Amino acid sequence: MISQQTITAVIADDEPLLRHHLNRSLAExxxxxxxxxxxxDGNTVLASIKKHKPDIAFIDIRMPGLDGISVAKALNKIxxxxxxxxxxAYDEYAIQAFEEHAFDYLLKPLNEKRLMTTCERVQxxxxxxxxxxxxxxxxxxxxIERLVARVISPRSQYLRWIKASKGDDICLVxxxxxxxxxxxxxxxSVYTNDNEYVIRTPLKELIKQLxxxxxxxxxxxxxxxxxAIERVKRDFAGRMFVYLCDGKVKLAVSRNAQGLFKxx
Length: 264
Known about the structure:
This protein is of the alpha/beta class. It contains 7 helices and 15 strands.
């Protein structure tokens, strides 16, 4: 959904090539977005935000001078606070980033599919603001309160990132990239299109932390992201299976979970 209103943004990253790459990628996934400034450090982007009053700020966390977290804290003192999307190669900053009310958190190297998902969420957010503010029966304050309750709060109670292991590395995996999770002997495997990770949290705990409209437990040992499902099919014996969009994975559906697919 692309809003008809003009949305502006600033970019801050101390690496020129990454600034250029993000600017170019944004032009591809969101052509209507107007990037009004590209800055190389925290002090400069803070000045740009005060000057241009952008709707969105894509901010690198590790920058010379004022870092991205400090920039976000400083923004609490200005009248118009932009939607903050942090960008970094260091996933250990995720919790701190969300404590500063980050809308999203993108890891380097940037994945265009992940960037598109973020942009779509931001577009939905601003379209909802635009729609609410055009209503004649509510004030702007009421509209914003209603919007925050509908768009931000419902997701805030659910996981947006899963901290998982891959070999000796600890990785932060966006739930939007997860295709399915499968319980093994003493751990749970997390599968994306390109990688497999391991976590220790039991499935019965994970399902409580995942948004129920996005993730279904289709078997006592399997949770699947609904958008990753391409089709559902029964075999000659009446057993149900889901086939994922990658064309490689087939997952069994337990008898108790088959009711989830009545509307599909």
